[in-house]
Amino acid sequence: MEESRVIHEITPLMGKDSLYIADRRKKEFTYPIHNHEVFELNFVEHAPGVRRIVGDSNEVIDEYDLVLITSPDLEHVWEQNTCTSEDIREVTVQFYFDMGEDGLLSRNPFLSMRKMMQEARKGLCFPLDAIMHVYHLIDTLSTVKDGFYAVMQFMTILYELSKCDGARTLATSSYAKVEVESDSRRILKVKNYINKNYMEEIRLSTVADIAGMSPSAFSRFFRLHTGRTLSEYIIDLRLGFASRMLVDTSKSIAEISYGCGFNNLSNFNRIFKKKKNCSPSEFRENYHKTRIIV
After folding, report:
1. Which of 22, 180, 193, 282 could bridge to 92 as Cys pair (CB 3.0-4.6 Å)?
2. In terms of Cα–Cα distance, which of 107, 108, 96, 51 is closest to 70?
3. How far is CA 263 from the centre of its chain?
4. 3 state SS of 2
5. 118, 129, 239, 291 from 98: Cα distances, Å
6. Mind listing the pLDDT tens digit for each residue in 170-210?
7. Mind giving me the DSSP string for 154-181?
8. CA 157 – CA 131 distance, rounded (Å)
9. pLDDT of amino acid 227
10. Quick check: 32 and 290 in contact, CB under 8 A?
11. Spatial separation of the C-alpha atoms in residues 137 and 217, rounded to whole Å
């Protein structure tokens, strides 16, 4: 195992503080890839061309970007890339809420927020209409002098975001090390089986038996509940594990390919490039370029 190259950021948020708000205008992004114990909502404005990396997600952002991250292990960074804007604005809010069963977010009025925070363990990116819906609240947050009202305004931002449609997770579950959760016991049993056996060949008939269904009925059922076919789900899961190994280990690409259930190296390279827009070796190199050892 290679020594970790991710900066574990010590945030300014102290024991009894509720929020740390940083509202900055700048010409470039220079901070390296990092993670931190506290949760973070990050808003970026006027920075088209910036590259946003969250776990194994790698995307180039447009004029506006808003991402919520609630995992202490999920590394992330905004890189300058091709952005030439002279007036970038970044509003970062770091915070921590008790996600335990007895915490405030377990109460009925906050259930949509709790669900959103759980999804954000993989990083959650919000669509433009949701960003515009809360823009005035983000825009003025750093000017609110009274701590109580600042917290209330931030809670309103989170609540409004939790009610919006179109938010999407960024990192894959297997990369973000997020446990599988599902409303359906049948789906949960199948996902747990795949999680334990992803490095082996997985047959439709086998998982259909686990769910107690015929293969054809199970295929329809699985797609209805996950939005993906069984083969698409397995490939995404394997790619997540492979991406994590490319970052965390010095194993060869061939070792990683076969260790994650791909029985053909060229097939692995082709699928990886199609899904990640870069080859496995480029993915590994890009991560190493954006990290420093501390």
Report:
1. 22
2. 96
3. 28
4. coil
5. 12, 29, 32, 30
6. 998 777 777 655 556 788 888 889 989 999 999 999 999 99
7. HHHHHHHHHT-S--EE-S-HHHHTPPP-
8. 10
9. 78
10. yes
11. 47
